[in-house]
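Task: complex structure prediction.
Instruction: return structure tokens for all chains below.
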Amino acid sequence: MEFTDAMLVAKVLQGDEGAFSLLVDRHYARCLRYAARMLGDREEAEEAVQDTFLRVYGALGRYRDEQRFAGWVFQVLVNRVRTYAGRRRPLPIDPADARLAELPARDADPGLELREEIARAVARLDDDQREAFLLKHVEDLTYEEMTAVTGASVPALKMRVKRACDRLRELLDGEGRA
Amino acid sequence: MRDEDWLTGVVDELRHEVTVRPEARARLDAAVRAAPRPRRGGPGLWLIEPRTWRLSPLVGLAAAAAIGAIGFGLGTLRQEAAPGRPAAPAAAIPAAFSGPTEIVRFTVDAPDARSVALVGDFNGWDPAATPLQRVGGRWMVALPLPRGRHVYGFVVDGASWIPDPAAPRDPGDDFGGTNSVVFVGGAS
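Output:
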């Protein structure tokens, strides 16, 4: 039987520390992907994700079963990433930037060039547009979850996502991508 | 290329996962092992509900109407420091406090609530530790708090955790500013 996230939370609260490690296993990679796309820097992304899970761990007693655990984690993650983004230099948009070059998962991947091109375009988006675009299209949050996570209204979020899409298309077309 | 196809292509690329480095994952596990164990009722908060409580004391009537629709009413919440003059039922003095304290009174207008509890960093966020007592349609409690900054909230009917709309929010709250802050003794 596979434990649901809520069951694992209950086990952690009963003293089973290993259950939290299972929760982290389930959600770490996705959180790291979001943080990395937002911050453009692996080490900062890892710090933000670690900070997030530590805060989630401390607050676990307040998790309610009917919530989607991933959405709950993302609420903390988005705040942490905003904090890190607020105290750092601009996102790397130079393809030679070492911080950006570290991000792809597979160095020998034939799609690497395209992925880097897209990552550079995403890095050029305004912070709120990039945040809304990634949460909606890459992380699959609903607009209601995004409202809770970002504090912005649904119409505002839809506008940010649309503008992000328009801007991305403009940037990628400008780099020769049809 | 159609917009949907274009978007799908971009999103597919962005969904490639970033490699998880074992050393980073191990650091997290070690940090968790060193952290205090979580317990039910600990600090933190949930996703949706607290945002419905962003109301001003000036719109107490409208708030009461809206709240009544979901089973309980909350109008103006008020918290005030009243050194030496407990004007509400006094809660037990937390044994762990040392140094100077001041009596702080918390009042809540919640005529339809069945119970209201005060939770904060001063009582371990325990909803059973500091219940408010009903006086008419208002709930009250007074308790001594050490001087300084405290973070708190109210638990209504044992389930709904709300901030105090009449008090500043805690900017350090990760869960959407759902706790309130009180400064006792003029601390900053």
